[in-house]
Structures are given as C-alpha cells and as structure tokens.
Amino acid sequence: MAYEVRGVVARGKGLPVSVETIVVPDPGPGEAVVDVQACGVCHTDLHYREGGINDEFPFLLGHEAAGVVSAVGEGVTNVAVGDYVVLNWRAVCGECRACRKGQLQYCFNTHNAAQKMTLTDGTELSPALGIGAFAEKTLVHSGQCTKVDPAAPPTAAGLLGCGVMAGVGAAINTGGVQRGETVAVFGCGGVGDAAVAGAKLAGATTIIAVDIDDRKLEWAEQFGATHTVNSRETDPVEAIKALTGGFGVDVAIDAVGHPKVFEQAFYARDLAGRVVMVGVPTPGMEITLPAIEVFGRGGAVKSSWYGDCLPSRDFPMLVDLYLQGRFDLDAFVSETIGLDDVEQAFEKMHHGEVLRSVVVFDR
Ligand SMILES: NC(=O)c1ccc[n+]([C@@H]2O[C@H](COP(=O)([O-])OP(=O)(O)OC[C@H]3O[C@@H](n4cnc5c(N)ncnc54)[C@H](O)[C@@H]3O)[C@@H](O)[C@H]2O)c1
Ligand SMILES: [Zn+2]
Ligand SMILES: [Zn+2]
Fold this sequence. Notes:
Blueprint lengths: L2 E8 L7 E7 L6 E10 L2 H7 L9 E2 L4 E8 L11 E4 L9 H4 L17 E2 L6 E2 L9 E5 L3 E3 L6 H4 L5 H12 L7 E5 L3 H12 L4 E6 L2 H10 L3 E4 L5 H8 L5 E6 L4 H9 L1 E9 L13 H7 L2 E4 L7 H13 L9 E5 L4 H9 L5 E5 L3
Parallel strand pairs: 4-8, 11-12, 11-14, 12-13, 14-15, 15-16, 17-18
Antiparallel strand pairs: 1-2, 1-4, 2-7, 3-5, 3-9, 3-18, 5-6, 6-10
Helix pairs in contact: 4-5
The chain binds nicotinamide-adenine-dinucleotide and zinc ion (2 copies).
One zinc ion (ZN) binds next to loops.
C-alpha cells in the first residue's frame, strides 16, 4: 500500500516551492519509511530550488530531519518499526574502493532508496540529498536511518542530519582542530556556527568568526567565537593576522562556498595550516591562486563532505553531548514553522534573519 502525504516540492528553477500531495511507496528490500517529526531548512535546499545543484526537477526538498521508522522492507536489520532516527545522506556501502580502504567517510557509492516517490500523476520526484523530508513520510534506504536517544527532541536531533554535522565535522574531522589551536570560520550561518561550536568542543583557544552581517557575528559569539570580524567593513585576512601574532590561523574554514571567501580563508592561515571548504560553490565558480602560494604555504587544502562524518559514530555522540548540556543544539533553532512556511523560511534565510527554521509536524 502506498501512502499519500503532503510534501514541499520545487517544480522549477527559482520558482516558489509548493506543498503538494506526494506518493510514498511501501518500503522495498533494504528500504524504510520514516514518519518525519522535524526537518530543518538548510541553505542546500535553497541551492536545489535555485537550480544550483542539478536540473533534475521536480525536487522533494528537506534533508535535515528526525523521525520514527513506520515501516521497513525485506532484509532490513539495522532499524525496526518504532525506532527514533536521524536521517543521514551518506549511507555507506561498505564495498567501494574507499570503504575497502577503511575510509568510510569518503564512500563513493552511498545508498539511497531504489524506489521513487512521485506526484499523484506519477511524475518522479528527486529527493534532496536522497532524503526529501519536508514531507509527513519519506522513503529512504535503511542505512540512511541512524538510531539516536529519543530523549533528544526531534527539532534538535534532526539538525545533526545535515548543517550542524557538516559544520562540527568540518572543524573536528576534516580540519582536525586540536586543543590550543587557532581557528577562523568564514560565514556564520547554521554550518559556520556549528564549526565554531565544533572548534570550541575540540579545545581551540582562539576562534575568529567572520561574516558580513553583525547579527550573525553576535550569534557566533554565543557558540564560542572569541573574536569577530565583519568582512564587509574590515579586511578579514589582515584582521585575522593581527589577532594571531601576525601569523594567521591553524585552521581556516570556508562555510560560505564562494571563491572570494575561499581565497580569504586560504590567505588567513598560518604556514602549514589547513583550509577547509565546507560551503558548497555553485557550478561555474572558479578559483585562481598563484601555484607558488599553494606550494609555499604548505599544509592542506581540503573539502568537507558532510563534515567527513560517520553517522553511526557521530550522531549518537553529539546527541549524548547535547543531553549532557555540553553541546547546545537548541541554540540553532531560530523558529519552528509548518510545512506551508518553507518558502517564507527561504526569504528569512536570504535576509539573514534566522540560523535555522525547523519544520515540525503535528501528529
Ligand atoms: N559540505 C556539506 O556537506 C554541507 C552541508 C550543509 C550545508 N552546506 C553548505 O554550507 C553553506 C552554508 O550553509 P548554511 O545553511 O549555514 O547557510 P546560511 O545561509 O545559514 O549561512 C551563510 C552565512 O554566510 C554569510 N556570508 C555570505 N556571504 C559572505 C561573505 N562573502 N563573507 C562572509 N560571510 C558571508 C551569511 O551572512 C550567512 O551568515 C551553503 O553553501 C550550504 O550549501 C554544506
Ligand atoms: Zn562505499
Ligand atoms: Zn543541508
């Protein structure tokens, strides 16, 4: 039996999203249907709507979610009906050349549901990041379900499904921030503030937040930024050097995904430092750097897919830290909204009014 539920669909490039009836099939082998309880609005949803990811419209948006498993297909053993889960968009295969080397965080063949969700006329939907959770129910691969402690409310836990995990992981996993290091985070939205919080968790002693919006900088301080720089008014590279004895930071994180910002991050780090790109550039953006600078500065230039996380390791760990009061997930939630309010939430995100709007489902 297929289910008919409401979901947020982007029908074409730049068009406002609409709430439509979608058809969610019964789970097939290896699949699960999840009753979504909460789903955050991530900038990547807006990238999809803008055609910045690919042209496979219509998209079923939403991918930062927590919920309860309501049906499982044949052969599913990692979750059962009734389990409280955070959805992840990198369900590792265990068999590809990355997985075989033990680098599961890079898995090149991550799993998604094999069946398609559709509109009522049969049009196939492309679920954002293989999830599509601005919907009362969604179909995923069972490996995309990560069980966590149900004591954490879905508005908080769901954030681990994308932006917060990406930011924390960019600092801790990709950047490898160590106790006593200096860190700069460019772009203080949900992802950037999570990188600030991750750097704090890892024991960084200087954490410099950079944004073009003073309101965002104030919020970044609440997550642990020790210094802030408004890069609309001040040259961030000079400011960061001035705050680090003239040297630059050990780890510079671009949480915007823009060539200009990447270049600032590149030049704001100390010799042998690490640059991490976690913001997602749009196709067509290009970076030009003097090759001698790439060589001469040493260190590493890395991108961070999903914070190089392992959902099975990192989601329960961050939920535990949250429940112990050591990692404030609630502080990311600017507002809770209904399914009909996603378009408005994009507007608010665009104008810098929110860190995260989170869709909650009444049941
Ligand atoms: N790598 C991943 O796995 C991953 C996961 C989730 C999101 N992302 C990406 O991370 C980026 C940030 O996402 P978000 O949800 O935090 O977005 P957001 O819109 O909430 O935040 C972006 C922030 O960047 C600031 N900003 C914009 N231009 C800037 C500039 N020139 N200099 C400094 N700051 C600037 C904005 O004021 C805002 O505070 C997006 O590109 C998103 O697609 C990547
Ligand atoms: Zn793999
Ligand atoms: Zn996201």
